[in-house]
Amino acid sequence: AELEKKSELSDAKIDAKLERHQAVTDTKIDELTRKVEKHNNVVERTYKLEGRMNEAEHDLKDLKQYHHPH
Q1: Which DSSP category does 4 fall into?
Q2: 25 φ/ψ sector (left φ>0, alpha ψ -120 to 50, else beta)
Q3: What pLDDT score does 70 carry?
Q4: How far is CA 63 from CA 51, 53, 60, 67, in A?
Q5: How far is the C-alpha of 49 from the C-alpha of 26, rounded, in Å?
Q6: pLDDT digits (tens, 9 = 90+) for 18-40
Q7: In what helix (H) or strand (E) does residue 3 lie, and over which residues does it extend?
Q8: With a threshold of 0.90, does the pTM exceed it?
Q9: Count of CA atoms in the C-beta half-sphere (13 A) of 56
């Protein structure tokens, strides 16, 4: 009976430890998820800006040719 109590106690300690580790893991995963989403947002915005920059460069080239034909 005493061995059974010790076993139950250590099972409870193991369960508590596992729950704490799971909570820490969940927190880290949530933080990494937020960071990935932020990074992906920056990549998406950069891609759009590059497209707009290409359009602006093209428009500028057209304007230069219009005002200074070769």
Answers
A1: H
A2: alpha
A3: 65
A4: 18, 15, 5, 6
A5: 35
A6: 999 999 999 999 999 999 999 99
A7: helix 2-67
A8: no
A9: 6
